[in-house]
């Protein structure tokens, strides 16, 4: 993999993975009052549009990372709805 | 702007902008206990690597959106350090 491509791969992996500790924290504390509902909803919407973009330009890494990110954002949204009040 | 490009523009704008209500919420509640420090730090690191990727491939929109995103993630990290305990 060329250096540039590798950078994009690492950046996407880190940004996507960053959601994991946030999800763990909310489930551990059983509280998501401080998590913004608009944040989780907009982020999820953004990832869906990125997937559409990836399909439109046939970019498998964009589709792949944003599908993972959408699952994670969906999990955070679930946690917000469950523990958010 | 072709439809595909427009999708990418909108996706980037929404994902980046999603951080704004999260930042507002933390500053309003003056509490960031539920915000994961690892989440904000990894996300910020990821945006910096995206900027390096954008510079490497000369992609001004990638540089632009990730610079904005890095400023927002930096603000959330600041809020976490200030209100996080």
The number of distinct structural domains of chain A comes to 1
Helix percentage range of chain A = over 70%
User: Can you tell me the CATH topology of chain A?
Assistant: Monooxygenase
Rounded to the nearest angstrom, the radius of gyration of chain A is 14 Å
Oligomeric status of the shown chains? homodimer
Distance between the termini of chain A: 46 Å
Examine the secondary-structure arrangement and name the CATH architecture of chain A: Up-down Bundle
Order of helices and strands of chain A: HHHH
Q: Give the DSSP E fraction of chain A (strand runs of 2 or more residues).
A: under 5%
Mean pLDDT level of chain A: 93
Level-1 CATH class name of chain A: Mainly Alpha
The general outline of chain A is elongated
What does it look like?
The structure is a homodimer of 85-residue chains. Chain A has 4 helices and no strands. Chain A has one domain: Monooxygenase, CATH 1.20.1280. The radius of gyration of chain A is 14 Å and the shape is elongated. With 85 residues, chain A is an all-alpha fold. The mean pLDDT of chain A is 93. At the A-B interface, helix 1, helix 2 and helix 3 of A face helix 1, helix 2 and helix 3 of B.
SSE layout and pairings?
Two copies of one chain form a homodimer.
Chain A lengths: L2 H15 L1 H11 L7 H20 L3 H24 L2
Helix pairs in contact in A: 1-4, 2-4, 3-4
